[in-house]
Amino acid sequence: MLTAFTIVLLIAGFVIWRTVLIVPMRQANVVERLGKFRAVLPPGMHFLIPFFDRVAYRHETREQVIDIPSQSCITRDNIQVDVDGLVYLKVMDAERASYGIEDYRRATVNLAQTTMRAEIGKLALGQTFSERETLNETIIKEIDKASEPWGV
């Protein structure tokens, strides 16, 4: 009798544990029902249907800083320079960040590296030092344009 009661209590506890979801203040959770997108849950307490609903993705909604590793670029006058940088990104649309691209962090790093190489290649060495603001604005504009469908 005690064993049956314990098993029933454990099963009830498991169902309740799978039903209640508390999303922290700095997150947005993407919920799928039977493998299909259902909703983006904002911070707070939510109730899920056990065994049908599941949290497929958890996204940090605070601004994130990603270090762009140093890389060699060749300027217009064939001089090799090493360039690195930082990218600040923030998830604006959790649904598009989940389903619009596989890994938005890695894609952002690769896009920033490609854009930096392309923009440095258009300038002479002297211009790279004097036109840093223009270079930064161009890189930001290109990253924003490419990452807009990703929701970041």
Q: What is the strand and helix layout of this fold?
A:
Elements: H1 2-19, E1 20-23, E2 27-33, E3 36-41, E4 44-47, E5 53-60, E6 64-74, E7 80-89, H2 94-99, H3 104-121, H4 125-130, H5 132-147
Helix pairs in contact: 3-5
Description of the molecule:
42% of the residues lie in helices and 33% in strands. The protein is of the alpha+beta class and 152 residues long. The protein has a three-stranded antiparallel beta sheet. Helix 3 (104-121) packs antiparallel against helix 5 (132-147). The mean pLDDT is 88.
Gist of the model:
The protein is an alpha+beta fold and 152 residues long. Helices cover 42% and strands 33% of the residues.
Task: Sum up the structure in keywords.
152 residues; alpha+beta; three-stranded antiparallel β-sheet; two-stranded antiparallel ribbon; rod-shaped
In order across it, which strands form the biggest sheet? 3-2-5
Shape: rod-shaped
Mean pLDDT: 88
Cα distance, first to last residue? 55 Å
Q: Which structural category fits the helices and strands?
A: alpha+beta
Instruction: Estimate what percentage of residues fall within beta strands.
Output: 25-35%
Task: Please give the largest β-sheet.
Answer: 3 strands, antiparallel
Contiguous uncertain segments of 5+ residues: none
Helix tally equals: 5
The arrangement of helices and strands along the chain is HEEEEEEEHHHH
Q: Give a count of the beta strands, DSSP E runs of length 2 or more.
A: 7
**CA gyration radius, whole angstroms:** 23 Å
Q: Helix amount, in percent?
A: 40-55%
